[in-house]
Amino acid sequence: MKIMSGRVNMTQAQLTALINEQVTAALAAAQAGGQPAQQPVCTFKNFMDCRPSTFSGTEGAVGLLHWFEKLESVFEMCECPEARRVKYATSTLEGIALTWWNAQVQILGLAAANATPWNDLKELIKREYCTRDDIHKLEVELYHLKMTGSEIEAYTKRSNELAILCPTMVDPPIKRIELYLKGLASEIQSHVTSANLDNIQDIQRLAHRLTDQAVEQNKLPKRIGATTSAATPTTPSDNKR
Known about the structure:
By secondary structure, the protein is mainly α. The protein contains 12 helices and 2 strands. The chain folds into 2 domains: 2-129, no CATH class; 132-240, no CATH class. Strand 1 (2-4) and strand 2 (7-9) form a beta hairpin. The protein is elongated, with a radius of gyration of 22 Å. The protein starts with a strand and ends in a 25-residue tail after the last helix.
């Protein structure tokens, strides 16, 4: 949805979602004897006010991941229930991605398509817009991923992105841990490994702290244009894959 010259321009999918929502609210009010229906936790307007990203199908695997992450952030911000997530999320599709979704709606019917669980939709879209060749390249990158110098933030961020896009490479969780430890700088790798932690978030926090210490002790070079990483690294939860 774009605002131009004082007008609000909606795609057909966005307009349909808004109309359906208003009709549902009106019917509920009528059934309640004319009393206004209780305001839902998350309306379509609430959702759009949070400025969700769009996805057109041409952004590649990482662009798709960023679309997922932005949508899930918006879902949290506007307290969007599971039952509305697919309907709202698909209103942000554009171009060939919107054409693909419209084809799914024709096959399944609108109600059934909108009732698709959010995680199931994510898998469907990944299969459509992340080719086997794309995934293979990402799997190779994840396997060979290495921390460069003291750039622990960049290493952790890319490791987390690839773990989401290559779920078979990190299941069971011990495989995720082994890959992350394997790519750490040698100056901290043995110390992190010997801690025998079994949670990837704890391992990443320790790796960040030890990197800071190694920089202070001149065992690792200073980061290029970055401060120390005392803050906890952000790690996507497993249920967002």
